[in-house]
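Before we proceed, please read the two lines closing this message. Let me know whether the structure tokens fit the sequence:

…
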Amino acid sequence: MRHSPARIVSLPRAAASTAAVFAAALAATLAVAGPAAAAATITVVGEAKRTAPPDMAVLTTGVVSNAKTADDALAANSKAVSEVIAALKAAGIAPNDISTSSFSIQPQQSYPQPPSRETPKLIGFEVRNSVRITVRDLGKLGGLLDKVVQSGANQASGLSFALADTDRLEGEARAASVKDAIEQAKGVAAAAGLRLTRIMSIQPEGQSGGPIVQAPMMMMKADAARMAVPVEAGEIEVRARTVLVYEAEPQ
């Protein structure tokens, strides 16, 4: 009995391409279903904080002067600010811890009451000059606040406390956040019936924080017999976060 010769079937190019894609997809599916599919990841965020008393303060204070002319307002303001700076230096503040933070000259106008349509009238000028002071001995801060007022300062925009060196505190907080993340990962793995195998990534994050004491925007002239301004520094708080990704597998 004669057999007909075998026939070779030639697929169109498009069909061959589809078959190749299907074969690749099947191979990828089998690879995922293999041993590697047993691996899982656990992501946790560890947090910690450390506190310490501040050892320095930053004060912004200055003088606001008004006069009918810009020259008069500037002259009065310059004289008053010079006296404030002299008082700061006499109190032991180093020159490099005193810096001008802002300066402005603004016209002052009188606006008519509605329904009047009169144009505003120039009535004078206002000059503002503020200095930023770093106080490295907090024991002198209360007395210093009183002295700057006595010397002519009539404006303050804020008082904040800080640490001259936060590296140690930040390092302690960061290490504690890593330990917290590790403990969390162990707990999650145990609850899920998994075993931690290796750390895949560590992403440390840090954030420092601390108290800020807001001083009044305007300060009145102090009496010579007035006591030092009471100030409570509180504590500086440093926070740290660490994102930890573990690889895990069934126990």
Q: What stands out?
A: The radius of gyration is 36 Å. The first helix runs from residue 13 to 32. The chain has a mean pLDDT of 80.
